[in-house]
Amino acid sequence: MDLKTNEGVAAFFTQMHDRFGYVPKKWGHKRHLFASASQIGLCSKKQKYMMERGGVVIDDDRPEAWGVFARGDTSEEWHVGVCHRAQLNQFGGPETGLKFQFLGEDQITVIDEARRLSATPDGIMWLRGEPILLEFKSIDPRVTLDGPKDQHRRQVLFGMGIMNAVHKIKPRRALIVYLDCSNYAVISTFMVDYDEVEIGALIDRAMLIHNTPLDEVTAEGAVFNTGECAHCQFAEMCKEGVAAKAETLDEDTRFDEETLELIDELADKRWRAMHKENLAKIDKDDSTGKIRMMLDGANAAYAMTERYSIRQSHVAGRETCDWKRAVADGVDLSDYVTRSNGSVRLSVRRRTDV
Ligand code: SF4
User: Fold this and answer.
1) Torsion-angle region of 7 (φ positive above 0: left; ψ -120 to 50: alpha; else: beta)
2) How far apart are CA 225 and CA 284, in angstroms?
3) Which of 70, 116, 250, 337 has a CA between 20 and 30 Å from the CA of residue 146?
4) Which of 44, 53, 231, 238 to mutate to test the pocket of ligand 1 (most atoms within 8 A of CB)?
5) How far is the CA of 203 from the centre of ligand 1 (A)?
6) 231 CA to middle of ligand 1, Å?
7) Domain boundaries defined on the chain
8) Which residue has a Cα nearest atom 4 of ligand 1?
9) What is the CATH number of domain 18-218?
10) Regions of the chain short of the pLDDT cut 70
11) DSSP H helical segments within 168-314, as ranges?
12) Residue 229 C-alpha to ligand 1 middle, in angstroms?
């Protein structure tokens, strides 16, 4: 690297940034051995992979991945500063008794050793003697929230559950604060109440993940199509596992009456949902066509109504390649062809005799 050249200096800085851009948090416990609050909302199989993989904070194969961790940490530091200044200035007056605990460098991890559960809340806010669990998140400004994200809701519930079980401070409410990562002046806040039933279900979920062998843990991301698989670092391994399991499926399994009834109900629910989906698509296509005709009739590219902003624009056609024809014409593409592991397809056909 020639530091006399402009390119050399720029490359030097880029390498320095890659190396020192993010200093991962140090954990006092072997985090991968515990079902943690921040992960309990993720796909069960992904959590199990993380446990089995061991203590890796950042995926070395994807150095670009540290950005999201850094964003989370810097936004948390911002909140810690805000909270300290508010406490110093007795914001709200002495009657609120505003006080913060376990913020920033004083952050603690609460551990339920017996059940191997852990939670690391971002802090506790004391208001009129009540401890309120705090969770700070940063959010992309393009995301609109009308409630907390499900994963974060589960995180604070799980955290409250663990604190109530093993810690002397027992919060019954939590506050999730989303910081707009493009404008730190903008926050969205949501309260979450303690919910015994939901917390119990989350702890059962954690125990199930602990006690089930990896190849038997449900690949929830794929099964429920949650969108997690697209960015999952275990996707390749997981696909192989799903394909291998599909090979072992038995055509002649006999179910008891009760299970069959349940499957029937779910299949019926699915069938009705598909029917609604088809009708919705017809409605959608019909409205699209009518709007386009009205805009075209007025030679308009844009319309703003009370509730919607509507634009029509030209989208360039996608490039496609008819590789089958190319092969038929004698082009050797074998070096460029790979086959994915496939996925398991569920087809539900309505029987006409019932
Ligand atoms: S690929 Fe999908 S289903 Fe598999 S572990 Fe990752 S998120 Fe879960």
Assistant:
1) alpha
2) 22
3) 70
4) 238
5) 21
6) 9
7) 18-218
8) 238
9) 3.90.320.10
10) 24-29, 55-65, 340-341, 352-354
11) 196-211, 220-223, 235-247, 257-297
12) 5
